[in-house]
Amino acid sequence: RSAARSQPGQEFNHGLVLSREPLSPGAVFTVRIDRKVNSWSGSIEIGVTALDPSLLDFPSSATGLKGGSWIISGCSVLRDGRSILEEYGQDLDQLGEGDRVGIQRTANGELRLWVNGQDCGVAATGIPHRVWAVVDLYGKCTQITVVPSNAEEAKEGIPQDEVLDLPCNQNRPDTFPNSLESENGFSSMELCEVVTNTILSAYNGNLLNVSLGSPPSDSVPCGAPPMTSNDALLFHEKCGTLIKLSNNNKTAERRRPLDEFNNGVVMTNRPLRDNEMFEIRIDKLVDKWSGSIEIGVTTHNPNNLEYPATMTNLRSGTIMMSGCGILTNGKGTRREYCEFSLDELQEGDHIGLTRKSNNALHFYINGIDQGVATNLTPLVVYGVVDLYGMAVKVTIVHNHNHSDRLRRNNAIMRALSPDVGRRAIDAGNEPEPERLLFHPNCGQKAAIINEGRTALRPHSATDDFNHGVVLSNRPLRNGEVFQVRIDKMVDKWAGSIEIGVTTHNPTYLQLPSTMTNLRSGTWMMTGNGVMHNGTTILDEYGHNLDRLKAGDTVGVVRKEDGTLHFFVNGVAQGPAAWNVPPNIYAVVDLYGQAAQATIADDADLLPLPDDLSEGNNQLSPSSPSSVASGSDLRFHHLHGNNAVITNGGRTALRQNCRSEFNDAIVMSNRPLRDGELFEIAIQKMVDRWSGSIEAGVTAIRPEDLEFPNTMTDIDYDTWMLSGTAIMQDGNTMRNNYGCDLDSLTTGSRIGMMRTAKGDLHYFINGVDQGVACSGLPPGKEVYAVIDLYGQCVQVSITSATGPMDNSLSTSNITEKSFPIHSPVPGVAHRFHSSCGKNVAFQDDGCRAMRVAGYCHGIVFSMKELKTDEVFEVKIDELDEKWSGSVHVGLTTFLPLDAPYAVTGLPSTILELRSKVTWLVTGTEVRRNGILQKQNYGCSLERLGVGSRIGVKHCTDDTMHILIDGEDMGPAATGVAKNVYVVLDLYGRVTSVSIVSSSALEEADGTKPPSVTSEPFSEEEEEEEAVPCENEVPAVTSSMQFLENHGKNILLSNGNLTATRVSSYNQGIVVVAQPLPLQQLFQFQIDSLNPQWTSSLSLGVIGSSPERLNFPATACSLKRSTWLLQRDSVFHNSLKIVENYGPNLDTCPEGTVLGLLVDSSSCLHLYVNGMDRGVAAQDIPSPCYVFIDLYGQCEQVTIVTKDTPTVGAEGADPHSQGDMEKADVVDGIKESVCWTPPVDLNTMKTCEYHALCARFKDLLLLPDDYFTEDPKYSLCYCESCHKLRGDEAYYKRGEPPRDYALPFGWCRFSLRINPRLEVASTSKKWHMAYHGTSVGAVRRTLDQGELVPGSMSILSCRPVKADPQGSSSSGGGGSSSRGYHEAEENSSQSREDLLRILLSPTLRYAGLETFATKVQFKDPKSHRQHAAQVAFQVCVRPGSYKVCPQSLAVPEPLDPRFSSAEIEWVTKEKGATVLYGLLIRVE
User: What three-state secondary structure class fits 588?
Assistant: First the structure.
């Protein structure tokens, strides 16, 4: 009568049981839920099947039954595994222990569900006559008992707390308690003996007390009325303006997700009940916006609510979870509510909430209860979801046991406290074993063999990559090393073994799929990083575990001082964590490639970190403990709210880096001494934000500083470098300093030093950038400051005495080198005798050959490579049966140490990681095997016999590779001083000869002589020079599109014109010829279709497009691709630059766009002949231009045929500058080459300027008021001002005063009054703005200046409604603005009539209060628009008074001007001169 699922904490399925006999018509087969666990999602499932149990091959769950099976799962009804009814009866997942559930087949073939004695209605019809009852002990449900369906008899049954409790090895008892004997014929309803996976093993439910998944069993009290189908939670039909509902109002999706980020609010169709779960699944995200989904509750009825743009704008009755915090009525009430941030969830993740009966609000993430968010939840609340930012689509989850939800819960396990809810263990009864073994409780796919010494994934190493967690059988003692040897690896998966420690006792731990998912009491080394409770605390730590092979060893030890250390192949990697508690268990995760590991017996012989001598070089070079050891400089324990200090004060990181971009300031723990360098290395960056690290010094003590959001907000005693700007006390002192912090990448080093003279110097990668500023108080203490802003996430202190890598040099050989005799004339280099086992030398060490196999071909230079010395070899022989090619680089490894290495030299140079090695392989640059750069130089795999490869160590600590004498540029930075050349004769390359001399290269960069080359002239050398890639064709005089293109493209005009003939995508075209260096490729936008949104994008691709399978859009190209889209630059679909150039979506028809790769391999964008600067660097050669005719852009035509090389003489940029557009188009059709003139006036093609000009014409203003030269009339729309490179603010006048450019407006220049001195107005007077009305424009122009009184639209007169006259508003034209007449006896009012209001910014002067809007119809498009007008004026210094703003505006209008200085007032006649008429059209 009772059934229990074995191993309920480790298995969630295979719990299927059936009734022994078929159901009688009308009989109700009823079971009681005896026990549930909270480790899983989903619960009991019940139904009927026509399959005979004696012949059944049991599936893993009831939903897998076919051949006539009806199963009720959650609140869904499934037939043969397919849903036939979504919302039925009561959700079975909400039932608790003691609840009863029954299934009935009526005499007329209906299927009914009974819950706690109540009929839930018809679930299905047409049920066969002969069916068996089916019960699936799934997920949470682990034990059930058959009970009578009569409610009274059920009460006489076994008590709820009396459950089956059998040892695992005991047989099923023959008899059960007498209270289970039935007198009503239920003996025939015994459970079928055919059960799977030893269902009847017992389970002790007292071991766990956690809440994971849906709310506990009290959420549906026993006897509560069932929820009928029409009560199901759905989204309300009234929703945000961009929301589209589908799937019976269970799915909500935000329209235009790439163009709009808000207006995506949806609410539930009814209020939430007490303890009712409202849960959604994230179906779709876009990676464009910051911020993501927000969820919560509100008291507002959706029928009566005017939906806001975002729910956090509501200021009443609303509680929302946003990011990882709680906002009540739009204000933050809990900053760090939970460990998970909604902004970092992925597609498929679940978010839920429930309002408890005690008014407590709980949120759930992937089934994990995040705790109480607030105890003050109102009684009547609706669920609300805000599809904000990245979140695009969600679906309400009713059936909480979906398989994807189950996998999510297994992947993000709740952190289990080692002590909560456990029975005390009597240590006296179980003496602690002396020998370290693996505990028998292990992951689902793991097994323990060899008397507890070996752990493996026996049958699933090639089928599954996780669920291989194993722990030690007892806690580690202080100083005890736990070390395992990797026995077996599989090459199917990514990732490998992970090792660490945990406070959790393995006896009671619900083992997760991978140990890094535990959120408490766990420290793990994974890859080459260290994670604590699932969060990375150290990047670039030690040897990369993913690179280990079978036979390698890894170990862990906790020292008495609480520090945690890891070992790799017996080498200590340095301290990884601090303050680790005692009584921790060792953990090994057989993840990915790692399939089997055995505990090593000689672990105690390893030297502990304290045993290492001070000069020992066994510390990992990338370990933080191996740097900064010579200084006591650390980060101070006081810091910004989002900053975290780890690694003993050496490392600082910004938490929640994808949802927070600032408030992460860190400072040094003590003042800097004069001449002392404080240097940090960037370890981690994200590409979500603009801006990056800022660094400087401050005289403010950390204890006295209230940390701001960013350090440039401090207005005293602070000097900072931000980008290229040097700032003192928040103000820019100078621009274009020698370095740009925003351009630094991971691995870059930044240092700062104050000299005894008070000068501040910055160092980038060890190179002094010169004096940044002077005048720092020499006698005042200054602290180093680092602002982890924007893209910069994590930094570590490197050294206070020099560059990091230089300090790691282990060689004691002096810089002095002696010449060696060489048997080859003119050659002074030789190979070292230490080499790979397949290498043989000839010519007295000048030639190296690989004599067998394809690997084991490592060779070194005989001596260290001097600074600026080139070591060059020539390829002698190739073996084409192998793939791959030679690898070359520099290493700090001493060749003399190779014979003493335990395993000798590795098979390939990629595995040489015991010392720091910089390596070029193919087109990739690697450091210690870790990828640093892609698409570097020419591919080494394309070199042939006779090709020469050289490596150079430059004075700036960079490594350069030379191909056939051509320098490919810096491959690596921060290279150590004492390094050897290392080559790997790998794959095709079997033999090389040294051809270089020890003599340094000439200053002019001529290549070192080759022993095989004869003397010849420079002209001959240029003619015979071999390009680095033979496939690169010579520069062609014509360019045309390739026949391989997107499926919606039609080529014409000799393949010069590309047209998209249907849809809005599938419009990629590529230029057939590669783009030569220094040659400008240009094309013209011929046709735009306004029915679509967005427009074209363009870029270059480094691979041949001949056989490229084009995706729908260019943003899906992810290999060697640089893309310019809108105003951003993408590399392999990842955004690398924001706010670059104009927005391509706004380019009108006739715009000419171009691309150029300069001699430094930098990509430039040209717009109408103007260079917009460097868009990307390190562009490979060859590269091909591609264009994506997307959205509005439907046709383009190449105009670069025979375009002269940039910088070539003889080109006349103005030769066709006067051609009309029609002439240009005709010229294109006739293949007439035309280079657009360099013309700063972009208004010829600006549609916004043309629209403003048409409105000006409607004003019927005389032309004599305006200047004839159009260059003084400028458009300030987004495209035009970015094309010109305008700054937002400028200074004018004596003394200089700031004013803002009128972005968003169009200026038509006015003639200056001839009676005034032009020089005085344009140079010595200040610039300001004056909003006005259309009716006042002509009168003002007639006066020639702004006149106080009724003539001025901004004559200020307080309305009678304000008796104090404290606030004034712009008025003008008297009654036209509706202002009341002033009181006759008011002297104040008469003074106000004489005042003119001005402002240095149009954000204030252009407010509708001052510049009234008028409606007009565009005579060209016949569309309605709203327009405003204003004047740009010169105002004489000293004639006006700076006053606080008279308008009550809740927020600052312009960040440059405070409310106290944004309004200027003048009463003087002749104090203003009209400079321009400004027009803005909406």
Answer: strand
